[in-house]
Amino acid sequence: MSLAQASATARRVLLPATLDRAPPPLGGRVHGFTGRTMGTTWSVRLVAGVRLAREPVFRAIQGALDEVVAQMSTWEPGSTLSRFNRAEAGTWHPLPAEFHEVLACARAVAERSDGAFDPTAGALVDAWGFGPAPRGELPRAARLAQARARAGWRRLDLDPARRALLQPGRLALDLSAIAKGFGVDLVARRLHALGLESHLVEVGGELRGSGVKPDGRPWWVQLEHPDAEAGGAPVLLALHGLSVATSGDYRRWFEHAGTRYSHTIDPRDGLPIRHGLAAVTVIHAGCMQADAWSTALNVLGPVDGTALAGRLGLAARFVVRRGAGFEERTSVAFDQFLK
Ligand code: AMP
Ligand code: MG
Predict the structure, then answer these.
(1) Whole-angstrom Cα distance, residue 46 to residue 192?
(2) Which helix (H) or strand (E) holds 103?
(3) Among 13-17, 118-122, 127-131, 286-290, which stretch is predicted with the lowest mean pLDDT?
(4) Fold of 2-71+179-335
(5) Cβ < 6 A, ligand 1 pocket
(6) pTM of the model as a whole
(7) How far is CA 60 from CA 42, 43, 190, 243, in A?
(8) Region 253-270: what's the mean pLDDT?
(9) 75-174, CATH topology level
């Protein structure tokens, strides 16, 4: 791990190693699309001919995101996930391919993060009022104990051959920490299928880029920082075959009696995280993985999180609160992008 020295003037630039092999610029121009999904906004920029029929492209994008919501939303009572959460103990549930893919990735991240990331934390999320039913007060100890007893990724019994999941009894899934990233990946897949190879897809701040713009330049994005003013030099990343996702309590929190609580829960003690991390950004080929790992490292915190990112070779940046300011820690894999 290294402590990156943020200079107030220099712009730090991250370039993927594959950029040298970028295909020659395509013809056409950049088209922009926007919409709403998952309680936030999405945006897509893509390269296509001037005569692009926009309506089918918009429908493909919105349709992909609507599918993710219909399958994996905790906010939709009729989603596949909500129905699973209400199901009787001992029942098996065939999963759509996308749900299965996300759950398999979520379980792998849970295992590798030793339960810091946990897709079965739904009852804990509800107990704290971070789910669809907000609460004005903190949960009592008995309620928390019940919610903790219901959670645990080891209770997941997934039959890959049948793509079916067992409801062992009151297990409550929450895929909110990974579904946005998967939504980005699914949109990118649908755009590729339409022959739209060069695009930048964003859902609620999680991003994935592919190809280059008509002028041959990559899709440049600026990495999020909790305090753009005080955060030192902005980091620019060329999203060429790469995704980036950020998890941080500066984005969303719950306030009670003057105290701010993070929406991210440490499933190991059932409490909102409180180790002073403002944000974790992860760069990964897949946005689903970037999303899940940014949450996992956020739970692990600046010490254990940087250690695990180092061991697994994850490209991660930790923004840690220090008094009134911020300190940054980056993993070796992250630094290797810096030019
Ligand atoms: P993100 O912004 O991607 O870090 O996701 C935060 C959301 O994930 C929360 O609002 C909860 O719905 C859910 N969540 C909270 N804690 C965890 C956790 N430890 N593992 C997985 N999901 C979580
Ligand atoms: Mg996440």
Answers:
(1) 11
(2) helix 97-112
(3) 13-17
(4) T-fold (3.10.520)
(5) 117-119, 121, 125, 130, 174, 176-177, 247, 263-265, 267, 291, 295, 298-299
(6) 0.94
(7) 13, 13, 7, 20
(8) 82
(9) T-fold (1.10.3980)
